Structure formats: C-alpha cells, structure tokens
Amino acid sequence: MSTTTGRGVAVVTGGTAGVGRAAVRALAASGHDVAVLARGRAGLDGAVADVEGAGRRALALPTDVSDHSAVRAAAGRVEEALGEIAVWVNAAFVGTLTFATDSDPSEFRRVTEVSYYGQVHGTLAALERMRPRDSGVIVNVASAMAYRAIPLQAAYCGAKHAVKGFTESVRTELVHERSAVKLCMVQLPGLNTPQFDWNASRMPRHPMPVPPIYQPELAGRAIAFLAERPRNNMWVGISTAYTILGERLAPKLLDLFLGRTGVDSQQTDRQLPRWGSNLFEPRDEEADRGAHGSFDEQAHSGDPVLWMSMRRRALLAALAAVCSAVAAGMARCRGRSGRGEPLSPRRAR
C-alpha cells in the first residue's frame, strides 16, 4: 500500500535502466514518491512496480528529455499528481562506442541533445518550480569522464564536460541569488548497466565498462544520499578518484596510457546480448532491462571512496580529535624538555 507521508517527491530522468533505475529504487527505499521520465514503456512499468513495491507513490511519464517543452510539461504533471518536487535527478543519457572519425554528425548531435541538453532541460524545469519556493535539490549525474576524456566516447565525454561546466555556472548564479536550492553533481566510474548492451557501437567486439567495474546500486546510494545531504560534488569509485586526480597531476601521461590501453579495455571477446542501439529508439519498450548489465561477475558492490564520502563529517571529526591529541602530547613533551625534566624516568647506573 502506498502512502503520502515521506520525504517528498523526486523526479528521475532516465529512470528505467542503469543508474537511473538504481536511483529510483534508492529514493523510494528512503521514503520518496518518485516520478520516472523515460522513453521505454516496459522499463517505465518496471520502475513504477519498484516504487510501489517500496510502499511509495509512483508516476510514469513517457518523455524524451531532448525536448524542453516535454520536460517542462512533465514537471507540471508531476506536481499535479504527486505534489511539489523536492528532488530532481538528471540521469538520462545515450552513448556511442566508435572512433570519432567513424561517427556520423547526427550521432554526435543526438548524444549531445540527450546527455547534455537533457540535463539542461531537467535543471531548468526543476529550477522553474524550486526557485520561487527557495527549496529543493537537483542532482546532475556526471562521470569521471567529465574531467578526463577517453577514446571511443568523444560525444559522451564532450557532453559530460558540458554538464560539469553548466552545473558549476548555474550553481554560482544560485549563490548570487542567495538561493537555498542546491545543485549537486555525482561523478561515476564504469558501471555494470545495460548501456553496454544497447549503445551505438561500431567496434568489432562487445562493449564493456572500463575496469574496475561497479554495480549501479552504488550510484543510486550516492544520489539518495545527496537528496538528503546535498553537497557540490560527490565521487563514486576508486577509479573515479584516481582518474580525476591523475588528470590534475599528469594529463600527458594519461594521454599516452589511454591511447595505448583505452580502446581494448572497452571491449570484450565474450558473446553477450545486443539489443540494438537506443540512440534514437528505446530498447526497453517491450522488455524491462532493469539496472544491471552483463557484467555481474566482475562488478564490485562496495566502494571505500563512497563509504568515506558518506561519512565525511564523522571521519573529519575523528581526524581532528586525533590531531588535537597528538598536538597536546607534543606540547607536553616540549614543556618538560624546556624545564629540563627527563622525558621518562631512568634508573641511575
């Protein structure tokens, strides 16, 4: 049985599969009613079943996020059916796996329209309703590739770089307004999602995430955390941390490393399902694909970076306490030494 009491209403774009689906489940489990904006009918039905199974209210809205008017209209329907939107998650994207010189300009355009402009449209639709109320949280799903591009994903990397720049710019505008609306990003590693069974690939072998691979529930957990404890940026995955930090410290070395390893590391010789490209048409219209892809046996379900990030305040407080104790101990030692006292008693010999 669904209930109207809880943590408020959340909207998730791209909520039928992968990270978006994991976010839908995590938000419902934490007490949110959830509206799902996506294209595939079977995926929408599956996401609604997940939310209602958690005892929350759900709303499925077939929406192509590249259409700004459609996203705005969907926001209005959400508030009419469920109430004021408290959380908006922009997770929808499409991708390709091919050399840039082998790509058609229409593919670049489509990836940009969904993966970048889709987040612009979602953010603007959310702000249109949140700013007058001076409350709300928006989470833009980004990637380590918003900081460090890799081969074969030029369109996607370009879109994620754009998402990062857009988010940071709009955040400064909210600061200028002294707005209480929070605009967050979450940076993700390679995840075990259906993306690799339906992206537009021209490569000879089956696409795969760059290892180490993580389960999408980690991303869902991070998004649900930001919905309640918003911050500017959150990293998921050790590989996200070393990719972003490596780009800051040694970008040329990463160029050389990725140029030599990045093409093969995104392909596997395994015979895995291919459902056709979802670039222009949904591939979960007739079958619900869920959150997971084909790499369960390789994917990690835990992440120390996320664990520490979710406990950042407690860890910093513990570190401060340790540092204070050490500093006090050193001060006592210096005081004894200045008075000529021995640091420890010794038996005369």
TrEMBL record:
Comp. bias intervals (Basic and acidic residues): 286-298
GO molecular function: oxidoreductase activity
InterPro entries, per database record: KR_dom (IPR057326), NAD(P)-bd_dom_sf (IPR036291), Sc_DH/Rdtase_CS (IPR020904), SDR_fam (IPR002347)
Keywords: Membrane, Oxidoreductase, Transmembrane, Transmembrane helix
Keyword field contains Transmembrane: yes
SUPFAM superfamilies: NAD(P)-binding Rossmann-fold domains (SSF51735)
Domain of life of the native organism: Bacteria
Domain Ketoreductase: 8-194
Gene3D superfamilies named among the record's database cross-references: NAD(P)-binding Rossmann-like Domain (3.40.50.720)
GO cellular component, one term: membrane
NCBIfam families: PRK07109.1
Sequence similarity: Belongs to the short-chain dehydrogenases/reductases (SDR) family.
UniProt-recorded name of the protein: Short-chain dehydrogenase
Lineage: Bacteria, Bacillati, Actinomycetota, Actinomycetes, Actinopolysporales
